[in-house]
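Write out this protein's structure.
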Amino acid sequence: MTKDEIGGSGWRGTVQDIATQLDEAELARRVNRARTTLIECHRVLIRATDEQELLDAICRIGVGVAGYSLAWVGFAQDDERKTVRPVARYGEAAPYLDEISVSWGDDALGRGPTGTAIRTGHVSLARDLAVESSFEPWRVTAARHHLGSSLSLPLRKDDVAFGALMVYAPEPDAFGDTETEILVELASDLAFGIRTLRERSERDRLASGIEQVAESVIITDADARITYVNPAFERVTGYARDEAIGKNPRFLKSGLQTAWFYDAMWAALTNGLPWEADLVNRRKDGTLFTEETVISPIRDPSGAITSYVAVQRDVTHERSLEQHSIRLIRERALIGETIRGLSRGDTPEATAQAICRRVVTLAGVRAAGLFLFELDARAWPIGFVVEGAPDSPLRRLPVQRSRHLRERAAEGPWIEPWVNRPWHPYNRLLNSLGVHAVAYAPVRHEQRLIGLLLTCAKQSVQEAAVAEVLPALVEAADLAGALIGRDVAERTEARRGRDHIAGIIASRAFHPVFQPIVELKHNAIVGYEALTRFSDGSNPELMFAEATAVGLGVELETATLGAALPAAETLPESAWLNVNVSPELILAGEPLRTLLGGSRRRLVLEVTEHTAITDYPAFRAAMAALGPKVELAVDDAGVGFASLRHIVELNPAFVKLDRWLIADLESDEARQAMIVGLGHFAHVTGCRLIAEGIETDIELIALRDLAIELGQGYLLGRPLPVDETRRPPARLGAATPVTRK
């Protein structure tokens, strides 16, 4: 205070806006709080090993350190309502989440801060929840929990938000620009942490599987240095993991395989081709072992080879048994010279002829023959040799004589006199050779009688020379059984199977049944799958496999399709028809084009994922030739060896999810994740998913929650003859009755 010019007094000082000073201090406090939150969250992210623990910790820090009223994380669900599911929460206002519903769709429940952040992938700030127009559905509930403003931060993967981190403050306008920027960085780091943990979890599951398989697994880098071996490798080789890591696999070489063998292997691998062969290696203790090996190059996204994976199965014992069997055959005392003239690759006929040539050189033998007993009980020669003469024509024995020989052969070898038999196909020949006696030795395979080896001699039954031939003949018969028995048995079984299938086709001992395909959302039948039932109750899958094995697969398919397509004409015209076909039938072109050309209905050809397709371009061309009304479905997705290749290569209209994926779906997150992934794939590629084998209400509900559009199974309708398909299913669990479109 100073005196003025007239003796008065006054004040000298400065005037400052205290309110502004308080605002700056509050701003600094908030920014510092956000930075502290970011630091604490980084500490959690660095140490995180579990996704749920990470999410819970981030929410706790958001409330405990940052001082917000509520922090929560929600994930976008790919369901019909596009629900946002809270997966972690913290704060006194946490009960708020139990009272509201949030969506990420473009509707009233999806236009709030959370839904907008997920749908657009951008930060959504609500400065004052009391007046924010888009916040109307939640305003009253938010006020009851004292929530004034919010910041919604998207969690993104590849520029697509899969969820959001939300923070709420009790007062309006609680999030400044700098504070928001820091929290955006936190959300980005959290999204990265979630993705990393999920990828790590997937790798851990894969690694756990590899660790437990019985086959040895070796992974090397591009320079063939070992980077990983599994426990099976340690058990088989005797080398510990630490002893193998960093080495080239050649440290296991036995030295028994040539340099060019390995040159060929690396030539294939460095050109990106898988390589398969038996490797003879040496264990740590010096012993040799044989491994059936498959080595595959691994490429990065650019196509460059980054590593190699070898899967090896110890087949030492198996190869030893094989060698032992070969040695036993070669060491047989029977007619040693015959063995030198035989090859395991020869046909039964060639082998039989070679044995007969050797047998006919025995003293006193004029002719030798090897006869097989066929399914019709007749004896058919597959080898017949006359001493010093060209090969004779092969002639089947009469039924009565064949039956007599078969019955007698069951008792063992024997000798009988040759008598004039005008009806015998070899009567004139044997008479001209002066044959007086015939010796017989049964030919068996695994104790089963399959034929007879015989010799025709000039001596009579009473002469010693004939009896002396018999032991050698028995040994020759044993050799014949060992060499041709398996091929003959397989040929006989194949003929029996072929006759069986041919009989089914000829008598049409089958009929079609039809199982509905249902649109799950509206419980409406939109299609049918045509299936086949056989009159004798045989398993259809096994029956078609048997037909394929005996070369009648296409014929049986054609016959069953020929029955199913006309029967389906009485089904509702709006319903499409699925029919199961093999790639062979599609590639054949005809008669499939003729069969399908007569149908006016929309047709879908189902090809199972189990079936290999060796030429995808040719298959696509064959499908295109069937016309635009014929579409393709890949069946059994999730279990076949082709995995997703059929789907990627063929671009089908439908993909059918195997029953294996549907069972226990409601409690199996791995199956749910796989179905969600396939659903995303289907959405991107334009195909439609059909869930097979729906048998329970719980499975149906779970599939609806996962937004699966189409379904099939006993719960929705059993396969029935066409005249019974008009009857609605007995029940549909929690669903409403099925209708027909």
